[in-house]
Every structure is written in C-alpha cells, then in structure tokens.
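thought: fold this chain, then report.
action: predict
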Amino acid sequence: MLGRNIARLETCTGFKNTPRSSDEEGQVLQDVYPVDTEFGGAGRFGFDPRAHLTEASELLTPANVRKLRAQWHSYWEENKGIRVEKTPGNLLMTRFMQAAFPNSYFIMIKRHPIAVSMATQKLKGPGIVWKLKPASLHYLFEHWLHCHRIFEQDKKYLNHVYELTYEDYIQNPASYHREIAAFMGTRVPEGVMEEITGAYNKKYLDRWRELLTNSFFRNYYRYIARKYESRFAAHGYSLVNGLGLSEEIFQERGKLSGEIGALYCFGADVAAFLRRFWTLKPKEQMKQWLPEFILKRIRRARQRALLNRRKTGAVST
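observation:
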C-alpha cells in the first residue's frame, strides 16, 4: 500500500507495463544481483550473508550499474523525476542501492513481527487457510530480528532515510503522505491516494491470540512469546500486550527449563519441514536434495530467460 501511494505522489512513478502489475518488485525486473529466492525466499533470505549487499559489493561495476539503471528505467515513466522501487529485500541492500543510485531516498516501513511472520506462512481468507513454508514461527521471529539488526547498522551510512511503522501509517495515512512527500521534495495530489485499512494486521493478531489460548501446542507459542517479548519490545512491539489476554497464561510454567523450550522449538522446526516437504511435487522434492551450486545455476538461467521474455513482450506492446 505504501509503495503504491508513494508512486502516486506528484512527479513520482512506479513500474508501469510490467508483465504482472504496476507495483511489481524491482528484484524480478533485473539480473544484476541475485533475487531473494536464491537465498531461501521470504523469511529465510536474511540469514544468508550473500543477501547483505553494501557499497563494497563486487557486483557494483560501472557496467552493472548501467545495466541495472537501464533495466529499471524501461518500466518507469520517462517524464517523472522521482522513480519508485519496492522490494522487501532492500532492507539488506540500502548501501548497495545508494552506491548504484547516489541520490537515493530510502523509506523504510517496519511492521509487527506477528503479522510479518504469519504473512510469510501465507494466512489467507476468512476461513484461515494455511499454506505452510519450511519455517517455524520462532524461526521467522529470528529472521525479523536479524534483518532489522542489519538495517540498524547500515542506516548510519545512508544520506536520506525516513522510517515509519505500518501500525502508525494505517492510523493516519494522510499525515505520513505529507511527511514523505516533503522528505522527497514533492507534494500529495488530491483524490488519488489508495484507501488504507488495518484489517490485514488484525487477522494475524487474532490468529496469534487463538494459538496462545486454544492451540494444542499452546505451550510452544507461550514459550516463544516469553522468549522473544523483550527483544521485540526494543523495537516497540509486544507479543503479549494488547491482545485481551490474562497475564496468568504467560506466568504458567514460568520456570520452564531452557532444555524443554529448546525441545519445543526443535519439534516445531521438524513439523514445519515435514508438512512442507510432503506437500511438494516430486520435482520440488528433488530440489530439496540438489547441491546449492546447481540450484543457483538453474535459478539464474531461469531469471535471464524470464527477463528476455519480458523485454520481448514490452517491445511487442
């Protein structure tokens, strides 16, 4: 929502005429640097050191910078002076992007770790349909913390950065649109901004409350709630407050040993992997066992082929 609305500001443009949508992620419209899926995809990529790119990256050759600019500019409106690109993995690539685009302005939005983690597990629809990925909830918590820790270290190298939270944004979007426009040196047009809703966060927090109270594995969820509460509190978030729950449930088994807690987490990791593995097609199951260097070559070849098809389609239209 935020990316689309920034692209609606005066003199701004998001990607246009891409194969799927006008707000498609820039990572899939280029082949200069690896996409997140090469490092495990959502909820996993940040743990791979190769996903953290800085101004020291060997990919920042003059030829690659020219290539990246050309690939993205082909999807931006030429008459707009501010070009918008949105990719979640940019959280770990700000210094790299600033080196490639020296006049970069970074707008970084932080969201509740419950919502981010459960969205990664693909919570869908009113009936709560789950599409599992091979990652337990505590693993996704660690990933959230790890990625934001890297950004906190990187942001001191950035010349222009604006930070906000998703929760604040949905409460007063008009105010943030004005602030962001001023930060970027433009204005907010009237009558074109997308309407904002807080419904997306609510469904994830409701599901989390249900897991804490009624799940057969509620001891696991209560354990990770206690374990991560203080770490998320440093970012302004809570896993226990504001959910309408009795504090007593978090005091149960207060002396739970670290060994038992670790066993809970191990069991959650194994269960998540097995559920994912047995829902894969045979072809996808084979990928679980192929060496990484082979998988990398396959992904890069597919990425180049996809870009070539998109270029051909853009010319023909």
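thought: worth noting. The chain has 13 helices and six strands.
final: tokens above.
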